[in-house]
Amino acid sequence: MEKSPDAFRTISEVADDLDLPQHVLRFWETRFTQIKPMKRGGGRRYYRPDDIELLKGIRHLLYDQGYTIKGVQKLLKQNGPKFVIAVGNGDVASMEALTAEAATNAPSIEAAEPDQVIGRPKVPTGRRFFGFGGEGDKAAAIDSAALSKENKALLQEALYDLLECKRLLDQVR
């Protein structure tokens, strides 16, 4: 007899549906605070339909898209669980709407200090902003004092995007 789509699922049912071992689901509970199955007597876990959808989104990002746990945590923090659920379901319209909503609620890049742009790694400032080439590489030397805060933030964002592309390419190789 099949359960209704709104019925709660045990950890074994969820693990089978997502093709994951049960210990991975328990581990994810420790890393993603948004996963909160209901626990009954004896610590038995029951997952709500929304919990399962979130797990599908997390699984898709980690296994199919190559994100790290830290990367998925950042996505959840910046965009919320609904965004990750939409990603897991392939709901492009919802992803775009949620991203636009998060962008309007986030502080603007102009208002943030360059090293405080949300989700971006700190980039060392100084005479050699980009470390291409050797010591005598004058083309790569940029006087960071001559750059405005906005331009520094934009350069940091571009550098982050390039590093993310490199990481993805390295995974494919």
TrEMBL record:
Domain HTH merR-type: 10-78
Keywords of this entry: DNA-binding
SUPFAM superfamilies: Putative DNA-binding domain
InterPro entries, alphabetized: DNA-bd_dom_put_sf, MerR-type_HTH_dom, MerR_fam
GO terms assigned for molecular function: DNA binding; DNA-binding transcription factor activity
Keyword GTP-binding: no
PANTHER family: BLL5018 PROTEIN (PTHR30204:SF15), REDOX-CYCLING DRUG-SENSING TRANSCRIPTIONAL ACTIVATOR SOXR (PTHR30204)
Protein name from the UniProt record: MerR family transcriptional regulator
Record organism: Georhizobium profundi
